[in-house]
Amino acid sequence: MRQLLCAPFEGRVVAQPDIPDPVFSRGLVGPALAILPRSQSRPIDVVSPVSGTLARVMPHAFVVQVTSKVGLLVHLGIDTVGAPPGTFSAILSQGEQVESGQPVCTMIPAQLDKVGSSAVCPVVALEAEFEDLATGNVCSGQRLAILSY
Fold this sequence. Notes:
Radius of gyration: 14 Å
GO molecular function: kinase activity
Helix content: under 10%
Shape: globular
Number of domains: 1
Subcellular location: Cytoplasm
Structural class: mainly beta
Strand content: 35-45%
Distance between the termini: 5 Å
GO biological process, one term: phosphoenolpyruvate-dependent sugar phosphotransferase system
Protein name: PTS EIIA type-1 domain-containing protein
CATH superfamily: Glucose Permease (Domain IIA)
CATH class: Mainly Beta
Oligomer: single chain
Keywords: Kinase, Phosphotransferase system, Sugar transport, Transferase, Transport
CATH architecture: Distorted Sandwich
Number of strands: 14
CATH topology: Glucose Permease (Domain IIA)
Largest sheet: 8 strands, antiparallel
């Protein structure tokens, strides 16, 4: 099956080999791409790239379960363990149904600069692949790739 994957926010697409973390750049979790937020200074809404069930919601990441085996991880930033309080705020909770383009959380990218973390946000296919990847700049909700499973 194939499903449209939308950008979780406005920014520049980062190819998997260029993600500044070896876990994501080498595909150790799964096929990945990432987005660098366009705005670093203001809070941004992070929307779900696909429809499904929120299988996991953490301050710095969420997983949307697409089918019983296929999921999509959205990881907010790199090395965000020391992020200041308020950097991430959940809007939805684990177990809720979510539609593609629906806000799941907010993020303030500039807060990550304070602790030397990167605002690059990996999007990882779990038990799936990406096809037809977008390049360059994307808007929130714009086609990012096709999720193939």
